[in-house]
Amino acid sequence: MRLFSKKTFAHGVHPPEAKEATAGLAIRRFPFPPSLTIPLSQHIGKPAVPVVREGEEVIRGQLLAEPDGFMSVAMHAPASGIVRRIGLMPSASGKMVPGIYLEPFPGSSQEVPDGAGVDLESATADEIIAGIQAAGIVGLGGAAFPTHVKLKIPEGKRCETLIINGVECEPFLTTDHRVMLEQSDDIFMGIRYLMKLTQAAKCFIGIEANKPDAAQHLQDKLPADLQAEVEVAVLPVKYPQGAEKMLITALTGHEVPSGGLPIEVGAVVVNVATTAEIGRLLPVGQGIQERVITVTGPAVKKKGNYRILIGTPLRFILDEVGVEDDIARVFMGGPMMGPAVSSLDIPVVKGTSGVTAFTLREGGDTPPKEYPCIRCAYCVDACPIFLNPSQLGLLAKNGEFATMAEEHHLMDCFECGSCSFVCPSHIPLVQHFRVAKAAVRKAKAS
Amino acid sequence: MVSVAKTLQLRTSPHVTSGASVDLIMRHVVWALVPTALFGVYAFGLTAAVTLSAALASCLLAEWLLCKWSEQPSTLSDWSVAVTGLLYGLTLPPGLPVWMTMLGGFIAVGLGKHLFGGLGYNPFNPALVGRAVMQAAFPVGMTTWHAAFGSGRFSSVPSSLFTFPFAAPEYTDALTSATPLAAWKFEHNLAAASDLVMGFTTGSTGETSAVLILLGGAYLAARKMMNWRIPLSIFVTVAVLTFALHLASPEAYPTAPFMLLSGGLMLGAVFMATDMVASPMTTLGVVIYGALIGVLTVTIRLWGGMPEGVMYAILLANAVAPHIDRLVRPTVYGTSGRKA
Ligand code: SF4
Ligand code: SF4
Q1: Which domain holds residue A413?
Q2: Global ipTM
Q3: Could you tell me if A360 and A420 lie in one domain?
Q4: Cβ separation of B20 and A386 shorter than 8 Å?
């Protein structure tokens, strides 16, 4: 194990970590809600296609919807119950999306029957990929990109380095931290599948130095058969080190080409909780029914790391943990990248790593006053992509989206929010960039 | 079970900020200038206090009036005009007639800042714009210096201070004195470096004490509210150039310490060249910018008609700052080896 390595990426910021409240709390099972709302698309790509009917009784772990093509994953019943309705439901994006309303049976044993597992010894790469897709696995770190898609190594490319992402650089969140402490066997089993599939020669488990217990635990538990290839690498704490590109640069020194995929520098990055799910589900042939979510923030009373059913509405979660009277803002994930929700009827999904709630005391009644850009260059020194957010911000104000994309690398911005975080003029830079990127994508599509 | 029934704030991420804000930065610049200003008052007495107050008041008033007339909310609370007012006052010779001081304050804020669109849009440091216009309009007033540490400095002020607007001030020779730069340029008198460091010479209200200026600068640099690379680049350039010239011809050229410590170089390099709005944004950019200021300062001082050149050097460098930014763009992640 490399303790106190100096390896990291350039630029970045140091937001308050705010992880002490939940880092020491073991994962606990969350109660089942009276009803679940399960979106058919919890991933980037095509929505899954329902294979159940309204009124049908399902058992926990049963397939609810099957993938529609390669860029799609399956969805399983998070609980035994009855399918009440298949139709539109609210989502975090604010739009109504197709989904399944499931009412769990209160008295059911909620046992999950095993399916046809993927045998580690005999399975081929394609069989493992199919198994991951069938298990409904997506990037649990928040991106929700179908994991099997990024594991499909394109013709002519080779994976040299498999990187297991245990960085968890978002403030407040401790899901990955707890998974590393409590599910090391699952993680190592997942790594075995991934190594076999990618044929990588080397595997790093990247962990930031603020989780020394997790790094030590994984090092101690490292099984003999993995010792030659797997290295636990401890990295200095810096946001956004958990971003794929930044982590690759920190660990290998390579830069992923602009607009390219990690595999172009021979790397594949998989989130540590995703790895644990692969290791847990593939041998028994089950699908994702639940995930670990940090429920935290100053407005939450019983903060903790909970194993929560996919589709549990936020309202139920917040009611269970209790909130302060002056709760003002709720967002999915951590405060740097997490989108605020407009309604508590929105459910948690596979990509939800945290539910964070702020009170009025964090940020007040209105957003901070915006000043003109004073060209302080804080954002320039923060941007891990080496963009000029100040310049981009001015262009965005004038609506010059095409110029932003063509001359100022707008599309390389991955919306980490570091620029907005440091801006003393409180310009919502990253929000401008989200809008601009969407406009550019739309213009390109038409 | 309490139900969460609230209107939720919809804000975009990030939901946390570093705590930096424009008014905070500006306020700290003001604090960093306080020792220098206090020393100015100590060295030049009541005169300096009057000049500084007049400069500050005129800038604040101009900002307030301009916001009112353009029907914008007042921007006094962002503290940027306090910085301008204080800096402008510190560049003036104590004893400048109050009406001139105030006129320049209006020019600094009106012409140097609001004409370009206000905070963030000024291509030049507003305080220096004010001073430059004053220098052109009132060459005598702007180069008449009062001796520092005069005995009656806390009991009386020179009559020039309260000259009626548009009347020429009268100076009594007994009170005036040459700045170290002018003394060197016109009389070949080299002031002692130790006097320059401590501020025992004459000059503008705020430019004489190198040590206090550097202290203020260090404070800001430590808080990341000033880019220390700018003054460093200026100092290194000036030092290297002067050292070489002095080596070549000790008779014709002053020593490097003298060049660094005399005149407005310290104040200009630390507090004016570092104006965030008017300086480049990248590390390489600010190094080039600083070097440019250094070269221009030395050139104007040694071969120009005036003893002091820092002000024009900074204004010229301000003008090219956007071009420097365009020329030295950092390589975007993942594009090295390819054409951007
Ligand atoms: S410009 Fe984009 S990538 Fe750069 S700091 Fe801002 S949000 Fe992050
Ligand atoms: S951080 Fe904000 S104020 Fe500073 S240069 Fe960037 S956009 Fe401008």
Answers
A1: 378-445
A2: 0.90
A3: no
A4: no
